[in-house]
Amino acid sequence: MDWFDSWALSLATFIPMVGTAVVLAIPRAKEELIKQVTLLTTAVTLAVGVIILFQFDYDAADKLQFGVDKSWIEVISSRYHMGLDGISLPLLILTMGITLLCVIYSWDHFPEPHNPKAFLALMLVLETGMIGTFLAQDLILFFIFFELVLLPMYFMIGVWGGPNRDYASIKFFLFTLFGSALMLLSFLALFFKSDPHTFDIVKLAELHGEGIAHGTQLLIFGGLFLGFAIKVPMFPFHTWLPDAHTEAPTVGSVILAAVLLKLGTYGFIRIALPILPEAAHSWAPYIGALAVIGIIYGALGCLAQRDMKRLIAFSSVAHMGFVMLGISTLTSFGINAAIFGMVAHGIITGMLFFLAGSVQERYHTRELSRLGGLLLQAPKMGWILGYCTMASLGLPGLAGFWGEFPAVLSSYEPAEGLNVGLFRFFMVVAAIGTVLAAGYLLWMLQRVAMGKVPEEWADAHIHDVHKPEWIAWAPLLVLILALGVFPGAVFNVTDDAVQLLSKAFVAEEH
Amino acid sequence: MPAPYFDYTALAPEIILTVAIVAVLVADLLFEEREKYQTSTIAGVGCLAALVPVLYLAGNGADRAMFGGAYMVDNYALLMKALFLLVGYVTILLSTNYIEEGDYYQGEYYVLLLTALLGMTIMASARDLVTIFVALETLSIPTYLLAGWRKHDARSNESSLKYYLMGVLSSAVMLYGMSIVYGLAGDTRLVEIAKYVSSGQGGQLFDVAIFFTLVGFAFKVSAVPFHFWAPDSYEGAPTPVTAFLSVASKTGGFVALLSLVYVGFFGRGDAWQPILWVLAAASMTVGNLIAIRQTNLVRMLAYSSIAQGGFMLVPFAVANQGDGSARPEAFAATVVYLLIYAVMNLGAFAALIAIARKTRSAEIDTYAGLFNYAPALAVTMSLFLFSLAGIPPLGGWYAKLVVFKAVLDAGTVQAVILGVVAAVNSVIALFYYAGVAGMMWFKPAPAETSTARVPVALGAAIAMPTVLILAIGVYPNLFARLGELATKGL
Q: What ipTM was predicted for this assembly?
C-alpha cells in the first residue's frame, strides 16, 4: 500500500472534483444518472477516508502522515504540501460523512428551482474545498481551498435559498472575503518575515515566530484573527450567519453548520496558534472575552427568535463560542475540548438543521408560534428532535456534553501567564451560558414538538420520517450517542497532536 | 554617420504585420461586397503569422538591440508582443460576426485594427522617448476611428470624439514632459536618461518633467483622476473595439509606463513613487465605488477596468526601496497582472458579446435568469467576473496575490497601507461582480427568450480564455514563469 500513502490525500481531495466534471458532462435531463454519479463519488470519497482511518498510525498522531510535498508554484516558493495528523483526521471524516448524507437527504426533495445537476455539481466542488482546507500544509494552498468553498456556497444560498436569498448570499460572500483578504496579507507577511522565506505551515510552526518583533506579530495575528473569526463566526462578526443559515436550503445549512464554520476554528488551531504562539498569548484574553460574549449573546439571540432555523443558527454562535473559549485557554485540555466541540457541533447542529428542513417541508413554515404537536402528528420525528435537543444542550452521555463541559472547565486553569482570575470569570459566564442554552433549546422543543396540534394543521396529513431521511439521519443519531459514551474515540486521536501544539505555550514561559 | 543596422529577424513580427495590413487593403479592393468577410480571415492569419517569428526569437534567447539601444527585442518585449498579437487575434474573432452582421465597413476595420497592433508591437520594444511616442500615436490614432465605427449612433460619435480629444491632450502633456527630460538629459534613449538620473543631477525641473510624462500616461491607462473619457468611450464604441481598448490599448500604455519608470526614471523613486501611489489608490477606490452604481455592464466593466488598472499601478508605487531589491518583484507583478487581466477581461467581453446576441442589450437587468435558458454562457460569464474579483481557483487570484506580495516585500508603512487599501478594494469589487452573477443565476427568466446561437468564431473566443483562466488558477506557475523571465532584461 505504498502508493496509497502518497496518493490518499490527493485522492480524497480531488475525487469530488472528478465527480463534478462527470456531472457537468451529463445532460441536465438525466437526473437519475446525475444523482447516482454524485452518490458514487461521495461514497468513494468516504471509502478513501475509511481506508485512511484504518491505515492511520495512531501512535504517531502528532506527526503528519500520508504526506505529499510536490512543487507547485515555484516562482513564489509555494508547494503542494498536504498532510494529515490527529487534529485533521476527525474533521476530514466528518466532512466526507456529512457530504454523503447530504446527497442522500436531497435525493427526492431538491429545493426549488430544482436543477439537481447544478446543485450536486456545486456540492462536489464544495467538498473538494472543505477536504483540501483540512489537509493543506502550505499557506497559499490552504488559502485556495479556504476560498474555494465560497463560490459554491454563494450560489447554493442564492439560487436555492429562501425569499431573502439575494441579501443573505452576498452578505455571506462579502464578510468572508473581507476576512480572507486580510488573512492573505498576514500570510504574505509571515512569508517575508520567515528565514528562509517559506509558506510551509510545518516549517513556520517550527520557527514559532522567531525573529519577528512582538508588535509585528500582534498585527499579523490580527489579520489571521479577522480571517478566521469571521468564518467561525465570533461575536461581533457573526451577523452574516443567521441570515445565511435562515435563507440557505436545508442541505446548505447543514454543510455550513457542520463543516464550513469549522474551517475558521481549524485555522486558529492549525495556523494562528502554532505559528505565532507569542502573539496568541497576548490575544488570548480578548479572544476568550469575545467567545463568552458570543455564548451569552447567541443564547439571548435564540430566546428572541420566532423562526426555528434562525434559532438554531443563533445557537451555533453560542456553541462556537464554547469552542473558541477552549482554544483561547491555550491548554491542551482546552484545545482538545475545542476539537471535540467542533465535531459534536457538526453532528448535532447538522442534524438539527436537517430536522428544521424536514419540519418546514411538512408544515411549509418555520414560525415557532404556528408549530406544535409534532410528537402527536409525527412521533418519530418528534422524538428525534427531542434527542438532538438534549444532545445540543450538553446532556451528559451524548456528544454535546464533551464539547461544552471540558471547554468550560479548561478555563479554570488557562495556560501559564494568562490572567487566571479573568479566565475563571469567563468560566462562570460560560456556565451561565449553558443554563441559557438549556432554556432556549427546551423552549424550542416545547413549541415545536409538544402541546396540542394547532388548528391550522389539525386536518393536515403529516408524513413521519421517510426512507431517505432515515438513511441520512441514522448514522448521525448513532454517532451522537457513541461519541457521548466513548468520547475517547476523538480525544485519543487528537491528543498527541494537541500536546505537541500546546508545548509552544509551556516552553515559551519565562 | 554609418547607416543604422537593421536586424530583419528581430523586426520580422512588425514586417509581417505590415504585409498583412497591405494584404487586407488590397483584398478589400478586389473582393465583392459579400466576400468581404474574408478580410477578417486574412487579418487573423496575419496575427498568427507574426507570432511565428516571436516564438522563434523567444526560443533563440539572445537579446537584440538596435539603433543604439532605442529598440530592444528582449524577453519582456517578446512576451508583450505575443500578448498583443494574441489579444489582436481574439479581437478579430470577436469582430467577425459583429462587423459583418452590423453592416459596417469591413476591410478598413481590420486595417485599422492591425495598424493599432503594429503600434503596440513597436511599443513593446521601444526604449527611447521618440520611439515610445511614435508607437503610442500609431496605436492610438486607429483606435480613435474604431471607437466611432457605429457612425449612425450619436453615442459612438461622442465616444470617438471624447477619446480623440483626451488622447491628443494627454499626448501634448506627455510630449511637454518628454521635451524637458530631453533638454536636461541630452538624450532620448532611456538607458542614457537612467545614467543622467543616477548621476544625481536634475533637481526640481526633472521632477516636473517626470510629473508631466506620467500624467500623460495616466490618461492613456485611464487612471483616476484622468479617467473621465473611458466609460463614455467604452460604452459608445462597438463592443469588440471596447474589448480591444480595455485590454490591448491599456496594456500598450502600461508597457510604455513600465519601460519609462523601470528603465528610465527608476533612480528618482522619490519623484514618481508618491504620484503613482496616489494614482493607484485613487483608481482602485474611485473605479470600484462608481462601478457599483452602474446599470450597464459595459460601463461597469469600464469602471472595473479602471480599478484593475489601479491594482497594476500598486507595484509601481513600492518598486524603489533604495537598495533595488524590490525592483524585479514589482516589475514582474505588474507584468503578470497584465497577462492575467488580458485573459479574463477579454473573456468577459467575449461572453458579453455572445450574451448580447440573446438579450439584445448590455443592461444588467436584461441578464435576469440567463442561467436558466443559456447555462453555459451564464457559467462562463460568471467565471470571468469572479476571476476579475480574484476568487480562487480562477486565475485572477494569482494576479492579486503577486501584487500583495510585491507590496509586503517592500514592507514600508506606505506600502502596507496601500496593501490594505487594495485588500479592501478587492472586497468592494466582489460586490458588483457578484451582483451581475446574481442577476444571471438568482432571478427568474423573462417569459420570452431568444434562441440565437453562438457563432463558431465567437465560441472559440470564449473557450480559449475560459480554459486559460482555469489553468492559470490551478497551476499559476504557467504565467508566473513568464513574469520572471521578463525581468531578466532589467
A: 0.90
